[in-house]
Write a structure and sequence with these properties.
alpha/beta; 7 helices; about 45% helix
């Protein structure tokens, strides 16, 4: 129960890795707000899994008014946000030479701008409280070449850079900012890869298997908790050795 009494918001919490993160934070005692954009039924299922301390939270991280309204509601109810996990993400894969402006822009607006908006919404309340933990969900695509994902790689690389600079900006105020960097997992976007591509990736993983969503959620819970009280500005790679 490392997060007992803490208030957490997880964007992109209605399915995949985000859903596993919500469940783990709730199991650690946090009051979890399950962020979703459109899939209210999925969010309600996650809430049911998490128990009485979970609440659905509708927001579109691409739109500033939506983010503002969502975090106003959380702050009105709890007067603080202790943990923010930015897991909302999209991908529109394709080679850059044939990529549309819309495909490029939607990925950057969601993955980078959306992260920025949500972090900005909690920074002042966290600074006022003198404590807080932000965990952004990156990707190994932001660390190594990922052909066919130029937009996604650029976005996730930007998120990791953002984490380092934010950590330096707010560390003296008691706020920690870190990232988890997942590789191939059995949930989320990677779960929808074509079987042949997934098999080829598994062959390159030293541990010989995809990760379980709960394994990433454990890493997030660690970074969110006081067990990581001296950890900030870091990108914790959780990929079974894929990027080694």
């Amino acid at each position: 129960m490392r997060l007992e009494g803490r208030v957490a918001v997880v964007t992109g919490g209605s399915r995949g890795l985000g859903a596993a993160i919500c469940a783990r934070l709730a199991a650690e005692g946090a009051s979890v707000h399950v962020g979703y954009r459109r899939r209210e039924e999925d969010a309600q299922r996650v809430v049911a899994t998490c128990g009485a301390n979970a609440t659905p939270l509708q927001l579109d991280v691409r739109e500033q008014p939506s983010v503002d309204a969502a975090f106003r509601a959380v702050l009105a109810r709890h007067r603080r946000v202790d943990v923010l996990v930015c897991a909302a993400a999209v991908h529109h894969d394709g080679f850059l030479a044939m990529m549309s402006d819309d495909a490029w822009g939607d990925v950057l607006r969601t993955n980078v701008d959306g992260t920025m908006r949500c972090v900005r919404a909690v920074l002042r309340p966290m600074i006022a409280a003198g404590r807080g933990s932000v965990v952004a969900v990156g990707s190994v695509a932001g660390l190594r070449a990922s052909p066919g994902q130029a937009n996604y790689a650029a976005a996730k690389g930007a998120v990791l850079a953002l984490v380092k600079t934010l950590a330096a900006e707010v560390g003296g105020k008691g706020v920690r900012v870190n990232a988890v960097v997942p590789g191939l997992f059995d949930a989320g976007m990677a779960a929808r890869l074509p079987a042949d591509r997934k098999a080829a990736m598994v062959e390159r993983i030293p541990l010989g298997r995809p990760g379980a969503a709960e394994e990433l959620a454990s890493a997030v819970a660690f970074l969110a908790s006081d067990d990581a009280s001296y950890v900030t500005g870091q990108s914790l790679v959780v990929d079974g050795g894929l990027s080694s």
